[in-house]
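Lecture notes, part 5. Sequence design as translation. It can be helpful to think of inverse folding as translation between two languages: the language of shapes and the language of residues. The source text, in structure tokens, appears below.
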């Protein structure tokens, strides 16, 4: 979870820690924040907390990935929240269908965590159409993804 001066970090951490899937490793990477770090203090015994100089979201994300020990990877932004069953539902689907990566629709929320949209996402009838569309640009919300770490390691 890359973090830089985000007032919603505690809500994001809570949504990750409260997953119905029990084997979560929550890594928060403070990317040089000067604000809202106090919202993280009460979780230090439950999360892996890493500080680094500001380098942007991608550098914080990559830094966190290097410290991850799990078999699967999912990215949660510090201003987003997971549905309580996100990981367990996605992992069940992955195992049942023998796939290495999955994404799902998302819902937009406002600053009070109230839903402000219907389910947003695109599905494809087959892999070829998905890959052709992906070549034109990514339409997958990053926080909806779950994938095996070895896929991430191979791709870089």
């Amino acid at each position: 979870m890359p973090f830089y001066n985000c007032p919603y970090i505690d809500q994001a951490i809570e949504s990750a820690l409260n997953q119905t899937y029990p084997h979560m490793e929550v890594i928060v990477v403070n990317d040089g924040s000067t604000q809202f770090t106090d919202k993280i203090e009460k979780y230090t015994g439950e999360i892996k907390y890493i500080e680094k100089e500001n380098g942007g979201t991608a550098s914080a994300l990559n830094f966190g990935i290097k410290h991850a020990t799990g078999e699967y990877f999912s990215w949660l932004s510090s201003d987003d929240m997971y549905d309580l069953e996100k990981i367990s539902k996605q992992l069940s689907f992955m195992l049942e269908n023998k796939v290495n990566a999955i994404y799902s629709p998302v819902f937009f929320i406002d600053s009070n965590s109230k839903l402000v949209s219907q389910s947003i996402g695109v599905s494809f009838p087959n892999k070829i159409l998905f890959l052709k569309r992906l070549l034109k640009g990514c339409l997958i919300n990053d926080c909806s993804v779950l994938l095996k770490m070895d896929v991430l390691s191979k791709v870089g």
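The translated text above is only one of many valid answers, since several sequences can fold into similar shapes. The mean pLDDT is 90.
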